């Protein structure tokens, strides 16, 4: 069984909070260009990209949206304001390569509910030292850490992330005209891919360290949304697997281990509805092979099996029509990722 893509799949209750994470895939307003001068949208292409996002929001009406791959944050803010997103946060800027050409897109957060604070999440040098990496380590894309005031839940911490991709980190050749040999190319590809994995795994560890630190000082529920660029179950992202820590026991602190645990919203949804055999829809395709890269993680307050829970995942939705059954006139300039969204309901 597949998770349905139909609007009727959404569960409704007296309180329903809808969360979504969207990789906008090079969202840049012309005449800006992403990475190369040739990558400038025409006015019609730019209109089509914005119209695709408008259609999704009009159909599913998420209350809080985490965005990745944004070059033009002000244009995104202007698009969202008329749709009811009065609150918007961005904590970084893309890096200019030369006039009108940019790299390093940023993450953003839009909300119908008040954003009380929004800060960049920096890597901590002492954490890097414990990990055995250079203390000047930095995220490849600066995460956004925000605290929102949400109905029934109160102050809630939200993290918007875009972890390092699997694209190999390659050193520039000293002589570009030198012909590459097969063995040399294999070595460069292998080491570059491992460097990317180290970066991505280190980012996950830094992120989880910050979440644990925050949770140790607050009772705020926590939500992590974004593009993880890896399978959550992978060894590279093991920092998110708090339950797998071998030397930790519940009697070590006032708060139980579950207080620091993050749960995949898909797993919580499947448990809540009591279905077996459901096949999780992919959120990205590479050479026709699907994988799940985009996640919404939730703290114990959203786990109905936890005695301290306040709410539960009432529905899970993966909007992938533009990937699996695209319409040329609507989806050509949409995104190369599916949109993941969940509906949170208060426990009865």
| Rg over C-alpha atoms, rounded to the nearest angstrom | 21 Å
CATH architecture: 4-Layer Sandwich
| Biggest sheet: strand arrangement | 4-7-3-1-17-16
CATH superfamily placement = Endonuclease/exonuclease/phosphatase
Beta fraction of the residues? 25-35%
Mean pLDDT: 91
Overall shape: globular
Helical amount among residues, as a percent range? Answer: 10-25%
Q: Ranges with pLDDT <50 over ≥5 residues?
A: 1-13
Q: What is the H/E string?
A: EEHEHEEEEEHEEHEEHEEEEHHE
Secondary-structure-based class equals alpha+beta
Give a short account of the largest sheet. 6 strands, mixed
Terminal Cα span: 28 Å
**Count of helical segments?**
7
CATH topology: Deoxyribonuclease I, Chain A
Name of the level-1 CATH class: Alpha Beta
- DSSP, total strands: 17
Structure description:
Pfam families: Exo_endo_phos (PF03372). This protein has helices spanning 43-60, 73-80, 125-131, 182-215, 265-273, 321-324, 328-331, and strands spanning 16-27, 33-34, 64-70, 87-90, 95-98, 101-103, 106-111, 115-120, 144-150, 154-162, 222-227, 263-264, 284-286, 289-291, 294-298, 311-319, 339-346. With 348 residues, it is of the alpha+beta class. The chain has one domain: Endonuclease/exonuclease/phosphatase (Deoxyribonuclease I, Chain A), CATH 3.60.10. It has a 6-stranded mixed β-sheet. The radius of gyration is 21 Å and the shape is globular.
